[in-house]
Amino acid sequence: MAKKNPAKRPAASSKFEELMTGTTVFNVPLPADLKALKGMSPIVIKQPYHIEYIHSYGQDSPFFAGLSNKKLLGTKCTKCDYTWATPRLACTQCGRETKWVELPQTGRVHTFTTCYFGGEEFLKETPFHLVLVEFDGVDTLFLSRLLGPEQPEDIKIGMKVKAKFRRNSQLKPTDVYFVPAE
Fold first, then answer.
1. What pLDDT, on a 0 to 100 scale, did the predictor assign at position 2?
2. Which residues are 144's β-sheet partners?
3. Are 146 and 133 within 8 A, CB to CB?
4. What secondary structure letter does DSSP report for 33?
5. For a designed S-S bond to 71, which of 66, 170, 174, 182 qualifies (C-beta 3.0 to 4.6 A apart)?
6. Which helix (H) or strand (E) holds 4?
7. Is 44 helix (H, G, I), strand (E, B) or coil?
8. How many whole angstroms separate alpha carbon 142 and alpha carbon 131?
9. Are 181 and 106 in contact (CB under 8 A)?
């Protein structure tokens, strides 16, 4: 077997083209005494990050189709007659498959909280109010935002509320919110 001539191999550095992308730095401080490295401040680099994420709503797709058509949809067991404001594929009482039903768009505040902190998507909107809405003929509650009242003192348990929908659906739970009913 013949040995390759090392002189004919390209130099490792010639495989990598130097590009002017990413972070280019100059004069990064490095102490002459390596013992001082323990006290060195961390290097922090800010860089953009992008990812395309494909998400399926699966069995909840009708709920989001309803929101984009200005309707609240829940599910109901045909055997137990139990109705969920937050849809379920199968009845948690008897296991039977549920059917889709349209929910009322008016209800009452069962309870509420005011959020002074939130995830990144909601941070600019704090403080905001979350309510659990109870509907006539529905056995479970529906979590949503309440717009209108400025202070928590302006919200009362039992207060009548009505659903409002974003004009342009984003296929998100926040496509529906509630306001005080007059």
1. 55
2. 131
3. no
4. S
5. 66
6. none
7. coil
8. 8
9. yes
Helix (H, G, I), strand (E, B) or coil at 144: strand
- CA gap 94, 124 in Å, rounded: 43
pLDDT of residue 116: 94
CA dihedral for 78, 79, 80, 81, sign (positive or negative): positive
Q: Collapse the DSSP code of 93 into the 3-class scheme (helix H, G, I; strand E, B; otherwise coil) and give the result.
A: coil
Q: What amino acid occupies position 154? A: D
**Spans in the chain with pLDDT lower than 70:** 1-24
Q: What is the pLDDT of residue 6?
A: 53
- Burial degree of 143 (CB within 10 A; 0-12, 13-18, 19+): exposed
**Residue listed under structure tokens 């006290």:** 39
Q: What are the CB-based long-range contacts (under 8 Å, 24+) for 70-76?
A: 70/165, 71/102, 72/102, 72/103, 72/104, 72/105, 72/142, 72/163, 72/176, 73/100, 73/101, 73/102, 73/103, 74/100, 74/101, 74/102, 74/103, 74/138, 74/140, 75/99, 75/100, 75/101, 76/101
For residues 73 and 105, give the distance between their C-alpha atoms in angstroms, rounded to a whole number.
Answer: 10
Cβ contact 100:77 at 8 Å? no
pLDDT at 100: 97
Residue-wise pLDDT tens digits, 10-42: 555 556 666 666 666 777 778 888 888 888 888
